[in-house]
Amino acid sequence: MIRLKTLFRTVLIAIGAIYILDALFMSAVANLNTGNLLALLLGAVLLIYGIFFNWINRHTGRGFLRILRYLAYAGLCFIVGLTAFLSIYGQMDNATYQEDAVIVLGAGLSGDQVSLPLAYRLDKAAEYAALNPDAVIVVSGGQGFQETIPEAEAMEAYLLRSGVPAERIIKEDQSHSTYENFQFSKTLLDQHFDGAYTTAVITNNFHIFRASQLARDAGFHATHLHAPIQWYTLPVNYLRECAAVMKYWIFRT
């Protein structure tokens, strides 16, 4: 039992330190966002709990505080389980490469340059465009915090440099959320096509599940195709996505 508690305490300290370091690193190299703040907060809580493990357990051994501690355990287990689900779901591509249109969801820019996660999405879109030359490509994303141009504008420029013809690109540059990505993209695609059309969605693996749900809510019967992310962004991105999925379950946006 003592060894088990020591192991649990060590794991808490290690995970807490990883979240804090990852959040600080991501804040330094990318735009400040909710994921970094959540990771920093969770990391601090886990690190403090691990360091003062015995003292906290002694003072939360009875009554309401004990219930609160077990609820915190349950919450942590839920985050781990949801992260595992999102990771597995995000690898299960079902695009047929016969869709009429592809929606590439925007991500952060550094000034006017695409971030590496967004570059991965666009590389996947360029690959798709080469395999399905009849599909149009919707680049979707407005101008966010610490960005000097709309994401769609930078995405279009990236695809043009990758050899995708300009006439195949539709630019949606007003959205500021995944929900709006699909709402505004559907308006443009409805105008582009005379009748029914099929759609594929491209985003990073952690984002596939929620993107698929929001695409369905917007009226798309969409397939999906995942792009990878850098290994060192996993803690921040998956924690932020867990919060976003829970928000979606509550508010459906």
TrEMBL record:
GO CC annotations, alphabetized: plasma membrane
Sequence ranges assigned to domain DUF218 in this UniProt record: 100-233
The protein's name in its UniProt record: YdcF family protein
Listed transmembrane segments: 7-30, 36-56, 68-89
Keyword Membrane: yes
GO biological process, one term: peptidoglycan metabolic process
Leader peptide range in chain numbering: none
Keyword Transmembrane in annotation: yes
Source domain of life: Bacteria
Pfam families: DUF218
Taxonomic placement: Bacteria, Bacillati, Bacillota, Clostridia, Eubacteriales
Keyword terms of this UniProt record: Membrane, Transmembrane, Transmembrane helix
